[in-house]
Amino acid sequence: MSDKYDVIVIGAGPGGYVAAIKGAQLGLKVACVENWTSKDGKQQVLGGTCLNVGCIPSKALLEISHKYEEANHHFAEQGIEVKDASINIGKMMERKENIVKQLTGGIAQLFKANGVTPIHGRGRVLANRQVEVTDNDGKTKTYEADNVIIATGSNPIEIPPAPLTEGYIVDSEGALEFDKVPKRLGVIGAGIIGLELGSVWARLGAEVTMLEALDTFLPAVDQQCAKEALKQFKKQGLDIKLKARVTGTSVKRNLVNVTYEDAKGEQEQKFDKLIVCVGRRPNTDNLLAADSGVNLDERGFIFVDDNCQTDAPGVWAIGDVVRGPMLAHKASEEGIMVLERIAGHKPQVNYDAIPNVIYTHPEVAWVGKTEEQLKAEGEAYKVGTFPFAANGRAMAANSAMGLVKIIADEKTDRILGFHVTGPQASEIVAQGVIAMEFGSSAEDLALTCFAHPTLSESVHEAALAAGSGAIHVANKRKKK
After folding, report:
1. Which CATH superfamily is domain 169-278 in?
2. Cα distance between residue 11 and residue 328, in whole Å
3. In contact, 327 and 393? CB cutoff 8 Å
4. In which residues is FAD bound (predicted)?
5. For this structure, is 452 an active site residue?
6. Where would you tag: which of 307, 320, 359, 462 has the fewest CB atoms within 10 A of its CB?
7. Where are the alpha helices (DSSP H) in 31-178?
8. Catalytic: which of 120, 452, 460, 472?
9. pLDDT by residue (tens digit) across 203-253?
């Protein structure tokens, strides 16, 4: 087989493997380079961070821990009596691993079914669309392509005050591998990943303290929804300290000593485990030869245009290594767009309609602009909200917390933002994404028939509230 391909994709995460499959479906000769290796060191593992140590395993643990917490704390009020429910951490981790194996194995089967050639090793972009691959034994081989797609993803940021220390100070990947529930758990960073991991272990019995340097909780989230979420998280026992900047850590007598500064000065706290969740950085180290023609910015992200084309002709980059949110679904959509463009079509990703989700309980999900952003931009807008406390299905599910919030243009009524804190927000937000993708007005949703009783009725009511008024909650009187 020739070592020349129509497309070589570097990275087999949600951006890379989707791009590779799409390319093959379009009739192109495609190879996908991935250096992730199984724990026994014998075979290539596909799926990237998301499937192996990110989205999927964390959601498995979130689901299991949520069921455990329900059994221990919320079943009784619904008339279900459970005696001494306990958690088997080993069994929980085994289930997580099995789900990961199923999905990563599924990608290998999809590659085979579509005719994608997997190449095991670390890829490096050379000049003239050549890709050098170094295998596990250090041997290199060079491949040629008409197009190269960089999809190497990201990895957790490490910070000098809290260097990773095996068994004590871990990153988000290490937090998915605990063999027992820590009595006291510290989390540096109260962002999306920190909240999800903190929630898992808090539900299983850990005392969780979250140290967040920022003075605003979830600044990227609409603050009405963020404040509602914060109220619920505190009820669940998460001790979230804002304006708390970690200055140092040390491990003594099997405990992690953490010093941090807050409004009261220097503080100290001891934990059994500490998770560092302060964000992620692009995987671009040693990725590009000096003459590759591909350029990076000062933070290590690859420069691309709106269509993910780099400064080098025929070289593209997608996902976490380029501008925009570090989201698996964003990477996948960019991968499909790039392959369609290579095939001569002209699609574009609508970056205004990419959903964001925090998979806590309640979930937090949003798409489009927040009220704070619109205020700062001086845009005239109107708002409709509806609380899940007035939703029959949410009440029946013992999950009547949070709200749906729709923000629309004051003059045109076009939906500008769609925000949900509450049960199944990750599913409900898709309705907002579809509406915005088709340029819907709030009135379009208000005139749509929603099934009763469903959580989605809250979308209907929020859309009504943005216009003539919700039916199932008292509306604010309009000024005459």
Report:
1. FAD/NAD(P)-binding domain (3.50.50.60)
2. 13
3. no
4. 59, 123, 152-154, 320, 326-329
5. yes
6. 307
7. 48-53, 55-69, 89-114
8. 452
9. 999 999 999 999 999 999 999 999 999 999 999 999 999 999 999 999 999
